[in-house]
Every structure is written in structure tokens, then in C-alpha cells.
């Protein structure tokens, strides 16, 4: 059945393009479509002829002999027939069709194309013992283990220890964990079931889809390994998250390549196996490649309520500002701005809420734990709720600026422990926090030589902050309320 | 042609000419039909398909077949030897996938579709092969799709252009929730998560004039459906929790499984916006994801971090679906299936204001530290 004619009918129906994913009848407007619905038979005929002619031209470009010659329609078609005969019958056709079953694309070629689309591998595991009965060669590219390394091994030896339980659940053919609640499609409400018939139906199907962390082989050079880990979003210990989809299949032992030690109680029994494709999920959050040299963090991200109050700080903030997160959280950023910078920053604050664009501040000074100042530059943008379009909070990416003579207050041994932009190296952050004590009690004498206000009246700055807020709320021009 | 009075001789000869040309045309058409038939037979198609093809279909399938062969013919020779098991399992790749496989030419023609497209969309493999993907996708997604097809060739910087593609489109679906098929005229839209790469066929075959052919870019994609939460066919393990939200993403329900995974009591979350619980470095990405969710109806987030109750965070991947009111087709709520991918990372690390509620006041901590020293 040729769908093209029904397609054009579909196109010409009047339907509205809504975001409704579940409605059955909908209208479709092809924007900017220049398709003129044929009104007369001769117009239909002309369109058909034109279409056929363009097909013939395209076909001619694909058939070697016909390509550079101006051949008539019949000849092009004849050449095409010959060409296809040649392609299918040629000795070079390695993929002899299985059982003479015609395949538009033989399975083997399909497999290779699939590997070009996704970083994935096929694996077969026995559900009872988790033994890896088969894994495709492509596993090497992803986990850096060869087929031979893995076949015959237990899958559980190659999983993150905390995911073993989860995978065991998935391998069992009758999943005992019953979802007590299912979603009623019509109302979106969650309906509690008695945990019987309906849930069992959901759970005893043959398909499986789950995530788990699998080990990557660390035998590579440390540097190369770490950077490839980062590409795969693997954590430091070398696990990457694999999304596996597949089905349960019952195989007789003769079909499957078992080792010689075939356990007696398996004889004659069918093995329940999971046949699945494991895919490495593509990166969603881009991250900078870890540099060879450990770099001190020069940047941190913070999130602020509309009034400027800190509601989130990432772990690098402590390394840069020396405050503990709990000291910052709940306080307003105005408490830390240098007096002279408040006006400018208040204006940026007003702008970011009003304009909803990303704002770059000038360099400004921020007070750190010991009372000294460091120079930062920030990029702010207001996060608006995609649905309500109201501002929920402000996200600030803060970068330390190295100006002359102002050294960031970071101890060198801390800096070796902290790597910039490293989101996966989580254990490091706790270590960094542990050494906070050293930073606070030891003053960096160099900084004291510079001309800056070491003491700032906290009440003055709080008042300044309040004034600014009032102005913002009232929508007034902040400059008029300058605190200078 | 003059229809006036024509001398008899001329009339006879013109009639004979017309007859001759009609005969010639009939003969040509006959030959044409013969060749078309032959062509259909040569294509590697199941007989049931090839016997019912019209000429236009034969053309589009032939063209697609030849374009695929061109694409594949220039690849690295496959040196590996296949074991029997390898061979036997070749067909399992497709079966294991939830979705189907698609190869798009640079101009958007679907030159290959795997046969399991019918299980996903109800449409048949050979009905669609050779057609333009734009004829089967939602018009609002066309611009995005066009961008995905563009392959930027290596720039002067010699930096490899990013070939990865990861996006969501809506395609026509003739399957009902009960598994029946409707006519394509009554098709609904189904959201597909497409992921793959732009590849270039490094065409080594030379043209007859001795010049090398230009490299042909193509897009290989795996298109996965996102299960509707009311129709999840796979078992969800204990590391998964469900949540429901109003359209502005405030929690209206959360499965109690979240407690063992993240520490929260479901009641803690009611009426709180989910955006408060996202790690700030992921909020950019998640915002884009949510825009997609509201535009298309479903989305898959990829991996991101969600803050745990007392500190630190967990890695999560969420499948989100907008539920529409059956009567007025208005969006009603968002249901999320949240797959928790890791344990709590950095449990002691305080990241957000909410996490400080359990933490001792700073002065106390400092005193404790001093005592330790």
C-alpha cells in the first residue's frame, strides 16, 4: 500500500497543531506549505509525472552506468535492475541472505549501523546466576573489557556494588515488588490497587528497561582513563551508567555456549536469560575536560532567592570564600559586597529580574571569611518557571578575577586536592571541608598589606541591602537611593 | 489541432498517426510495466510487499535501497569472524531495543527504517521507506529537525564538529493505547527520543570521469518512545520513584520510596517546587528539558543531580509526561518516573538552604572544631 496518497489527504485535513500528545483527532497546519491541492485530473497527472521524472533523475544518479549519460526512462530502469542484480549477487556481498530471506538490510549490517548510532553492546545473562553468556565485541569501546574478559563471568562482579540488588530484581522473571499505585491515564491521579492482578500483569511481562552502573576497566594510563571517564560521565572509581533494554528469553542449554562444567541440575532445563542492549547515555551536561594539572577552583555557582538570599552554593564556594555553606545560606549577598560596589550590583540585580537576560557584572569585591576581599566577576541570570513565566530564583556563576596583588585565599595543599569543574570527584569536596579549620585560623598575612577596608559595619551593609530591596520592590531607580 | 473540415486523405493519415502513437505509447507502457515489475522483484523485499507496490513506491524503495548500499559499501571491511552465537544474536539487537532504527539522508528522506517501527508507531516499514521524514513529523518540530540534519564539515580550526545528536520529535502514530491500528488520517502524535550521530560516508568509489565523489552525510538514529506512565510495561525496581506535579512543577504527590533513596518524607515536598531541588549546575539543562516537555508533551531528562534531604545529592534520570484532561484537552499535571542512578553522593556537603535545617548552627560547629584541635 502506498502511503503517499493518504499522506496528502492527511495534510489537507484541517487540524490544529496543539501540544496535545494524546488527542485522537487533531488538525494540522503545514506552515508555509506550498502544496497546492490538485483540483483537476490533469493537474494530478502532471504532478505524478513530475514526481516520476524526478525519481528517474535521482535513480540515474545512483546507477553507475546511467549517471553521466542522458538516458531515457526505460533505459534508466533497466540499468537499475542490472545494478541491483549485481549488488545482490556479487561475490563481494559478504552478507549472504539467511535462508534466502530477502533483507533490505542484513542483520549484520544493521548491527554495525546501530553501533554508529549509539555506544552500545549486546549482552546475554542467565537470570538465575547472573552469568554472562554472551557479550558483543563492542563492549570493549565502552567498558574497556574484551569479550573474553567478560564471557563466563558473573555480571554482578562488574556492577557497582549498590546496584547489584536492583539488577537482581530486574532479572527475576516474576518481579515480586508490586507497584501499589498506578497512574490513571485519564485523571492523572494515582490509584491504589490491591497489588494483585493488575500489578502482576505489569510485572510479569518479558521486557526489561533499567539503569545500572558498570565497571570500566582501569588498566589504561591514569590520565587517559580519567579523561575518558569524564567523557562517559563515569565517576572516579570508574563506573559508567548504562541504560539496558531488552527481553527475557528461555533458552535450552544446547543453544547456549555454556562452559564444560555444566551443572547437573541445569541439564534439560531451559535457562531464563536476559537479552539486552546496554547503551551509554550521551552527555547531557557538558563538562570541561579535566586538565592534567590540578587547578584551584576559580569559579563557583550559587543560587539566590529574588531578594538576593543565598539558597544554594556549590562545593567550590567554600574553597574560594572560606565560609561554610551554612554560613552563607539564608544570608543576603548584599552582606558581602564591598560598600563601593553595592550601587552597581543593585542595578544589575534590578536588571536581571526585569530583563530576564543574562547579565555580566563588572568586577566587584566580595568579603570572605577573614574579612578581606577578593575580586569577582559574576554572570547572573534569572530562572523563570517555564510554565508560570515567573522568576523563581537567580543563578550566579562567579569567577575569581586575578588582579594585581590580590591573591585568592587558597592554601596550596588544598588546591592540589581540588580540581576545577570536576563534578564527579565528590570525595574531594568532603576532604576540602575537613581542612577548613586550617584556613580560618591561619591568616594570610600578605593580604593585610593591601589597602582595603577590613572592617565593615555589618549593620550599615544590612541597611543598604534593605534600602535596595525596597527600591526594587517599589520599582524605583536604585541610583536615587545610593548608599554612597 | 484543427477540427474544421479536413480533406479525407489528411484525416486518414492523421488518424493513422494518432493510432501509431497510441500503439507506441501502449507498447512503451507495457515495457515500462514489465521493467517496473522486474525492479520490484529484484528488491530484497518479502513477496507480500513487492507484489502490491505501485510504481511510485517501487521507485522510492529502489532509490532508498541504492542510497543505503552506497552508504555502506565504503566502510571498513569487517574483519571479525562470527561465531554461531554471534550470528544467531544478530537479530537480537533490534529486538532488544524499545524503539526503532532510522537512517536519514541529508535532505530528510527516510532511507532506512527498521521493521519494528510498526510496534512503536503502527506504521509499516515499507510504507514509509523513501518518504520524507517531514511528512510524518509534527510541523512545529521541523525547524529543529532541519538543524539536526546539518553536518558542519571540519572548520579551519581542525576541531572535530560534534556529531552527536540527541533530540525529541513528534511522529505520526497509528497505534491506539489498546494496540489497535487506526487509519493514518486519524493518527496521533507520539513523542520520540532520537539519539545518534551524523556520519559521513567516505565514498571511495570513483565516478566514471575519474573524480572522487563528494562525501555524503547521513544521520543514524535510534528512536525510543517514552512510556506513558499509565502504560509502563517493564517492572520498575526499588530505585525508582513516581512523582506528580502541577504544571508549574510543584509536587502534588510523591511515592514513599523517595525516603530510602533521598531522605525526604513525601509530605516535605508537597507544594514545593521541584526546581528548588535541582543542583544549580544542572538547572540550565533542566530548564531546556522542561520547555521541551511543555511543547511536546513528554521528555526524558538525561542524567542530572537532585539534592538529598540532609546534604549532598543523587544522580537521577526522569521520564516526564504531561497528562491532559480528557474532556477539555487542557494540560492538567505532570507525572514523573524518576530513576535514581546513584546513592547519595557527598552526604555531608551542604548545598542548599533546605539542607541547612538539620545542620547545627555555625558557632557550635566552630567550637567543636576548636575542641578537636
From TrEMBL, chain B:
Residues 16-69 form the BHLH domain. The lineage of its organism: Eukaryota, Metazoa, Chordata, Craniata, Vertebrata. Gene3D superfamilies: Helix-loop-helix DNA-binding domain, PAS domain. GO terms for biological process: cellular response to hypoxia. GO terms for molecular function: DNA-binding transcription factor activity, RNA polymerase II-specific; protein dimerization activity; RNA polymerase II transcription regulatory region sequence-specific DNA binding. PROSITE patterns: BHLH, PAS. Residues 1-26 are annotated as: Disordered. This is Hypoxia-inducible factor 1-alpha. It is found in: Nucleus. It comes from Larimichthys crocea (Large yellow croaker). Keywords: Activator, DNA-binding, Hydroxylation, Nucleus, Repeat, Transcription, Transcription regulation, Ubl conjugation. It holds the Pfam family bHLH_HIF1A. Coiled coil: none annotated. It comes from the Eukaryota. GO terms for cellular component: cytoplasm; nucleus; transcription regulator complex. Residues 7-26 have a biased composition (Basic and acidic residues). Residues 94-157, 248-297 form the PAS domain.
Amino acid at each position: 500500500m502506498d502511503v503517499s496518497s493518504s499522506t496528502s489527504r492527511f495534510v489537507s485535513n484541517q487540524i490544529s497543531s496543539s501540544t496535545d500528545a494524546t488527542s485522537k483527532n487533531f488538525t494540522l497546519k503545514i506552515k508555509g506549505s506550498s502544496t497546492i491541492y490538485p483540483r483537476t485530473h490533469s493537474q494530478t497527472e502532471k504532478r505524478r509525472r513530475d514526481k516520476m521524472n524526478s525519481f528517474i533523475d535521482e535513480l540515474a544518479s545512483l546507477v553507475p552506468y546511467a549517471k553521466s549519460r542522458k538516458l531515457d526512462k526505460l533505459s534508466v530502469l533497466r540499468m537499475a535492475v542490472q545494478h541491483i542484480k549485481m549488488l545482490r549477487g556479487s561475490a563481494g556481498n559478504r552478507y549472504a541472505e539467511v535462508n534466502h530471506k530477502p533483507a533490505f538490510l542484513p542483520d549484520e549490517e544493521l548491527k554495525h549501523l546501530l553501533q554508529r548510532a549509539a555506544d552500545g553492546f549486546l549482552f546475554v545473562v542467565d537470570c538465575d546466576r547472573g552469568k554472562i553468556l554472551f557479550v558483543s565485541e563492542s563492549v570493549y569501546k565502552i567498558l574497556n573489557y574484551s569479550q573474553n574478559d567478560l564471557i563466563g563471568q558473573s555480571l554482578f562482579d562488574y556492577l557497582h556494588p549498590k546496584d547489584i540488588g536492583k539488577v537482581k530484581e530486574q532479572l527475576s522473571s516474576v518481579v515480586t515488588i508490586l507497584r501499589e499505585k498506578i497512574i490513571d491515564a485519564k485523571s492523572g491521579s494515582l490509584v491504589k490497587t490491591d497489588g494483585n492482578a493488575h500489578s502482576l500483569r505489569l510485572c510479569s511481562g518479558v521486557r526489561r528497561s533499567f539503569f545500572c552502573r558498570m565497571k570500566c576497566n582501569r588498566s589504561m594510563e591514569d590520565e587517559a582513563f580519567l579523561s575518558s571517564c569524564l567523557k562517559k560521565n563515569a565517576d572516579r572509581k570508574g563506573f559508567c551508567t548504562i541504560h539496558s533494554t531488552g527481553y527475557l528469553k528461555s533458552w535450552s542449554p544446547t543453544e547456549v555456549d555454556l562452559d564444560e562444567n555444566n551443572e547437573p541440575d541445569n541439564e534439560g532445563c531451559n535457562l531464563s536469560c536476559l537479552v539486552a542492549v546496554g547503551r551509554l547515555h550521551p552527555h547531557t551536561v557538558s563538562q570541561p575536560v579535566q586538565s592534567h594539572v590540578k587547578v584551584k577552583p576559580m569559579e563557583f555557582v550559587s543560587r539566590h532567592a529574588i531578594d538576593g538570599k543565598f539558597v544554594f552554593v556549590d562545593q567550590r564556594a567554600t574553597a574560594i570564600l572560606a565560609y561554610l555553606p551554612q554560613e552563607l545560606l539564608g544570608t543576603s549577598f548584599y552582606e558581602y559586597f564591598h560598600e563601593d560596589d553595592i550601587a552597581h550590583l543593585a542595578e544589575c540585580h534590578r536588571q536581571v529580574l526585569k530583563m530576564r537576560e543574562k547579565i555580566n557584572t563588572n568586577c566587584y569585591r566580595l568579603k570572605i571569611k577573614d574579612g578581606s576581599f577578593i575580586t569577582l566577576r559574576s554572570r547572573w541570570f534569572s530562572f523563570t518557571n517555564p510554565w508560570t513565566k515567573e522568576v523563581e530564583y537567580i543563578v550566579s556563576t562567579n569567577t575569581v578575577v586575578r588582579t594585581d596583588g590580590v591573591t585568592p585565599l587558597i592554601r596550596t595543599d588544598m588546591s592540589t586536592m581540588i580540581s576545577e569543574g570536576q563534578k564527579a570527584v565528590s570525595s574531594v569536596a568532603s576532604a576540602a571541608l575537613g581542612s577548613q579549620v586550617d584556613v580560618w585560623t591561619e591568616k594570610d598575612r600578605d593580604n593585610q598589606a593591601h589597602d582595603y577596608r577590613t572592617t565593615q559595619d555589618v549593620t550599615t551593609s544590612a541597611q543598604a541591602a534593605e534600602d535596595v530591596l525596597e527600591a526594587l520592590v517599589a520599582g524605583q531607580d536604585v541610583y536615587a537611593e545610593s548608599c554612597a | 489541432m484543427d477540427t474544421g473540415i479536413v480533406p479525407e486523405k489528411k484525416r486518414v493519415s492523421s488518424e493513422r498517426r494518432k493510432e501509431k502513437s497510441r500503439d507506441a505509447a501502449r507498447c512503451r507502457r507495457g515495457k515500462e510495466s514489465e521493467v517496473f515489475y522486474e525492479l520490484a522483484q529484484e528488491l530484497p523485499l518479502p513477496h507480500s510487499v513487492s507484489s502490491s507496490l505501485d510504481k511510485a513506491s517501487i521507485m522510492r524503495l529502489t532509490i532508498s535501497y541504492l542510497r543505503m548500499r552506497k552508504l555502506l559499501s565504503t566502510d571498513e571491511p569487517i574483519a571479525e569472524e562470527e561465531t554461531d552465537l554471534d550470528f544467531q544474536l544478530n537479530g537480537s539487537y533490534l529486538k532488544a531495543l524499545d524503539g526503532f532504527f532510522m537512517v536519514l539522508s541529508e535532505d530528510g528522506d527516510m532511507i532506512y527504517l527498521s521493521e519494528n517501527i510498526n510496534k512503536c508507531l503502527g506504521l509499516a516499514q515499507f510504507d514509509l521507506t523513501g518518504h520524507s521524514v517531514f511528512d510524518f513529523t509534527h510541523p512545529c518540530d521541523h525547524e529543529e529537525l532541519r538543524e539536526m540534519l546539518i553536518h558542519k564539515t571540519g572548520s579551519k580550526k581542525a576541531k572535530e564538529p560534534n556529531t552527536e545528536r540527541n533530540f525529541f520529535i513528534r511522529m505520526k502514530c497509528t497505534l491506539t493505547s489498546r494496540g489497535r491500528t487506526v487509519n493514518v488520517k486519524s493518527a496521533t502524535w507520539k513523542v520520540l527520543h532520537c539519539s545518534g550521530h551524523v556520519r559521513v560516508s567516505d565514498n571511495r568509489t570513483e565516478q566514471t570521469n575519474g573524480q572522487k565523489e563528494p562525501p555524503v552525510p547521513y544521520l543514524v538514529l535510534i528512536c525510543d518512545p517514552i512510556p506513558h506512565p499509565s502504560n509502563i510495561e517493564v517492572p520498575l525496581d526499588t530505585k525508582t520513584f513516581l512523582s506528580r506535579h502541577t504544571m508549574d512543577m510543584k509536587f502534588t504527590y510523591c511515592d514513599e520510596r523517595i525516603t530510602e533513596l533521598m531522605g525526604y518524607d513525601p509530605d516535605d515536598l508537597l507544594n514545593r517546587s521541584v526546581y528548588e531541588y535541582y543542583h544549580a549546575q544542572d538547572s540550565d539543562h533542566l530548564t531546556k528539558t522542561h520547555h521541551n516537555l511543555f511543547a511536546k508533551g513528554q521528555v526524558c531528562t538525561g542524567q542530572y543531580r537532585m539534592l538529598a534531604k540532609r546534604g549532598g545529592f543523587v544522580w537521577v534520570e526522569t521520564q516526564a509526561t504531561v497528562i491532559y484532561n480528557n474532556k477539555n484537552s487542557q494540560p492538567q499535571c505532570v507525572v514523573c518516573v524518576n530513576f535514581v542512578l546513584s546513592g547519595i553522593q557527598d552526604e555531608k556537603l551542604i548545598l542548599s538552604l533546605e539542607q541547612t535545617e538539620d545542620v547545627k548552627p555555625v558557632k557550635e560547629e566552630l567550637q567543636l572544631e576548636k575542641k578537636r584541635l
